[in-house]
Amino acid sequence: MQLAILSLLSIIAYIGGLVLILRISPRMLGAAFDEPRFMGLAILEILGAILMFGAVVITFAVFNGAFPIRVLDFVFLVGIFIVSARVALYSFQPPAHMLRRTHRVSRIITAAFGIFLALAAIFYVVQIFTAS
C-alpha cells in the first residue's frame, strides 16, 4: 500500500513540475537576469525540474526497474523532453508582441536551461534501458 501511495505522490509531483516549467518559463523572459525576480523564477524552474526527474527516479527505485516501470519512466522522460524543447524554442523565438518586452540574455539563459533539460532527459532514457 505504501508503494502505491509513493508512486501516486511521485506522479503528482511530476505533473506539478511540468506545470511549473510551463508557467514560469515565459515569465522569465521579461525580467533581466540580474534582477531578484529572475532569480526567484529560476529557483522555481529548478524546483520543477527536480520534481519531474524525482518522479522518474522514485518510480524506478521503488519497483527495482521492472520493465513496465521502465516504460512508464520512458513516457515521463518523453514528456520532459517535449516540455523542455518547447521551452527552449519559445525562449529563442518569443511571439512578436513579446519581443519588445524581453531581455536577450534572459532569453538565452532560459533557452539554455531548456536545452540542458532536454539533453538530461535523453541521457536518462539511455541510462534506463542500458542499466542492468
Structure overview:
This is Integral membrane protein. The radius of gyration is 16 Å and the shape is elongated. The mean pLDDT is 88. It has one domain (1-130). The chain contains 5 helices and no strands. It is mainly alpha-helical. The protein starts with a helix and ends with a helix.
Average predicted confidence as pLDDT: 88
Quantity of strands, as a count: 0
Number of structural units classed as domains: 1
What percentage of the residues does DSSP assign to strands (E)? Answer: under 5%
Discrete helix count: 5
| Structure classification | mainly alpha
Quick one: biggest sheet?
A: none
What is the CA-CA span between the terminal residues?
27 Å
Global morphology: elongated
Bin the helical content.
over 70%
Order of helices and strands: HHHHH
The gyration radius over C-alpha positions equals 16 Å
Indicate the low-confidence ranges by residue numbers.
none
Quick summary of this structure?
The chain is an all-alpha fold.
Q: What attributes does this structure have?
A:
Integral membrane protein, membrane, mainly alpha, transmembrane, 5 helices, elongated, transmembrane helix, 0% strand
